[in-house]
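Dear U.,

For the methods section draft, I wanted the exact inputs and outputs in one place so we can describe them consistently. I've listed the two proteins in the order they'll appear in the manuscript figures. Please don't edit the token lines directly; just add comments below if something needs changing.

First protein:
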Amino acid sequence: MPDDGEPARSPPISDPRVLREYALLADGHRGALIGPDGDVVWLCAPGWADPPIFSGLLGGRGRYLVAPACPRFVWGGHYEAESLIWVSRWVTTDGVVEAREALLFPGDPRRLVLLRRVRALDRDTVVRVRLDPRADFGRAPLVGIRREAGSWTARTGDLYVRHSEGERLRPTDDAALDGELHVPAGGRHDLVLEVSADPLDEPPPDPDVLWRITEQGWRAAMPRLTGGGARRDAAFAYAVLRGLSSPGGGMVAAASTALPERAHAGRNYDYRYAWIRDQSFAGQAAALTGRYELLDDAAAFLTARVLADGDRLAPAYTVTGGPVPQQNDLGFLPGYPGAPVRIGNWVREQFQLDAFGEILLLLAAAARHDRLPHDSWQALNLCARIVEDRWHEPDAGIWELPARQWTHSKLTCVAGLRAAARVAPTAVAGRWAGLADAILADVAAHGTHSSGRWQRAYDDERVDAALLLPGIRGAVPADDPRTEATRHAVLAELERDGYLYRFRPDRRPLGDAEGAFLLCGFAAALATWRAGDQVAANRWFERNRAACGPPGLYTEEYDVGQRQLRGNLPQAFVHALMLETAVALGQTDVG
């Protein structure tokens, strides 16, 4: 209870906002989404796929609000250069308030530290704070709340919680901490939240030290990108990839779960796992910047998975290499509007042939940079043998659909085998090149449309935007007429308003069945650039680069008509293709 005897306010569960308004904080082990009202509405702890302690995004009771107490304000914000340090900015009727926010970076896998530094820029201000961490999707409120050495300590579920520098907060009747902070003009107030799987026995940390560690950590982690109209966005894309990547482990496809791609269509998935394909995209893109940590991490992760599982390789794993949990709906939460809450992923049961081609492409890229250890060469050999044994089989493909003879999957294996043959010893290089020729001959016989382009599957004559990727990756020579015919057909049939859709699922107009796929838009830019049309390539790039909100984050899909983001946030492989395209088109230079 507050000192004046009045009961503390207990605000309702956070109202959902459109996805374009959320910013990301990430440290490699978990990620937080923070809204324009200063509310942290999503944060899993201690790791990516663990239950959240703040689940307001999906209608849960956990939240961490730091915002002006003044009821009238407008929001803005920005990321500090080459980092995931976010600065919220509110212009109120009483003055201007900023909150600098970050997860301590580099992060600890068992302990998260969330930093929030509030500043009153021009006048004295009052800031509202409400800390209400609730583990297990909001079902475990704080217990054992007490003051110790100037900090608040408590438990939520199996996690230990400590909140420092918040001495003016008070426990509420509903087991939260609530209060107001008075910040003088030109002054600041630090808040430090720690959540740990282990007891927090050491003294509370110094905020100044934590901020210095975080600033230095981001400076040390980032490549040197210079020049070009997209330098800032390219550097930010790298920061997002770094923030989503567990050091020495996998990179999550997205920080969130159950955000709908289409309202009430059943397309709301859990992407807090490491997809094989996404690792390849991110590692290859990051290597173009001249920094190889993400390439090394991706190569190590894929090597371990191939050597452990062989032809039983799953399309996705936890970031530590474990199996993805079975898909399950959580009926006790309302979810983000348009979809129920869903955790786990059914993709674990699929065979995706193109994943083996992507592994070959990634490991070959590492070999070109002389960064492939002995065990990765073993994985390269094993992966080529698996392709040799299984390329005839139908698979789920890049879009994770019912198994068919997908043309993209086979051509991706052709591209991967050719890339591997270029870096392999002579003894096996010829065999891999010959296998690539054999697969290509089969695709040419069964996957070529009568017009001379590639078709979607052996039994499906439609076009598919995924068919741009094998040409980009070198499945056939750049001047192969099938590549150009495919590009022309894809852009003619699947483009609307400068954005690209995956394929036409039925007779409905494009955009009625699903949103545009930003991955495909950046692929169109790369394919057009490789075809020699610099002007059109940059037009594709700039159009798709704009498909984000003020923080600059991309989702998988983009609703062109409503200019809204759709699906889980942020989508890693879109940032990877954006980064690759920016470097390829000269929109940023590598220093």
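Second protein (the one for the lower panel):
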Amino acid sequence: MIDPEVVTLSRLQFALTALYHFLFVPLTLGLVWILAIMESVYVMTGREVWKRMVQFWGVLFGINFAMGVATGVTMEFQFGMNWAYYSHYVGDVFGTPLAIEGLMAFFLEGTLVGVFFMGWKRLSRHAHLLVTWFLALGTNLSALWILIANAWMQNPVGAKFNPQTMRMEVTSFTDVLFNPVAQAKFVHTVSAGYVIGSMFVLSISAWYLLRGRNVDFARRSMTVAASFGLAAALSVVVLGDESGYAVSENQKMKMAAIEAMWETEPPPASFTLFGIPDVQNRTTHYAMHIPWVMGLIGTRSVDKPILGINNLVEDTKGKIGNGIQAYDAMLTLRKDPNDAQAKSTLAQYDSDMGYALLLKRYVADPRQATPSDIDKAAASTIPNVPVLFWSFRIMVACGFYFIALFAYSFWLASKRRLDNNRWYLRLALYSLPLPWVSTELGWIVAEYGRQPWAIEGILPTALGVSSVSAGQVWTSLSGFVLFYSLLAIVDAVLMLKYARKGPDELGIWPVREITPPLESTVSAH
């Protein structure tokens, strides 16, 4: 039988390392494009000030990039450590995009990062700019392959189960590559990274202006961050709508849980702006609805319903029954690969066989399951509704806040008034953590909302773990927590050290300005 403690600890370990790793990835995705924009201005104008800006922000980019690579390597080790059966079951599909991403991250990106830092005196301006733009493209392509792999877990296309090898095998790599979920997830994720990069530059520049340091440098940096950030924040909201549509098409239970929609509403479904989900009674108290919105987002129509949780649970019971037939046919084919009846049955119900595997949490052989076991398995497909409900709403609220902040920043930049508002600069500074909060919440919605599936409809998470003891997982979990805590301390110290020094103390900015701090100027008036 499955050890629930091993499953829980393995999930916790992967969640902690993944969430920590994603602190660095989006900043890399966003900051590298800001470097490319700044260097493009330098090459077009020939003004040394823009080169100095690229060099300073490049230092912080380099620290972040190194941490991202270090945390990414250890995260991938876990597929062999804690998720051995998962790796066996879907490795034929999942391994290819991961291998390509690894090659790009370690060879392409690593080489380009080295040339970026070492090439200032060895390359012409145009050649160095080309390296920076290739670095920007390379980091985004690296993210693409990771998201292709992740999207396949959400929407497993282009693959088929082989009863002889007991594995999922690729039938169409093109379908895997052009998975519609991957496309929506990629553009939404990288846009969120662009927001993080923009907020990073905006907030640190605001800190300089509040202290009257590097004023010209900070103004220019904030102008770039405001412009790029506004475009990115608008893209996140628009492309998030596309992601919502992809979820409603392929992960109906996740969509229903995000909305705490227990019963199917008449189309077009409304959006629940606020409410208190009650899991025990399967209702949402004090719900405030906005008519039509969820129907338009989820179905792109006014006449299609979004199924409620209770209806989806009943549908799952039918899929479990079909899956039991497929499971029985699969075992028959293992003994006699030429059994025509078993082939026909498996071909008819193989898409539901994963639902039969949900029963292995309650009974060793799904064919021996009782109606009570089937009810439990069907109910287990409901994710944690309150967590998804609130995570999604906080994420969306942050998204609209970013649009407002960057729009106001852009307006101030156009009026050359960025350093005239102390309250705005403080707001920009204190907003620094928010993009990370919203991005991590987005991943909680995406991954926690997929439970109990490791591969949606194919492989339950509980079956993917390695044959290890809870003590062994505790040991590796403790090691990872210690290692990542040390990295967090190193990263925080380095980032704070170089951000506090600024381009003037690092010798990048040619003149240390003596403009009085903004607080003093404001108080004097």
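Candidate sentences for the figure legend, describing the second protein: The first strand starts at residue 159 and ends at 162. The radius of gyration is 26 Å.

Thanks,
Y.
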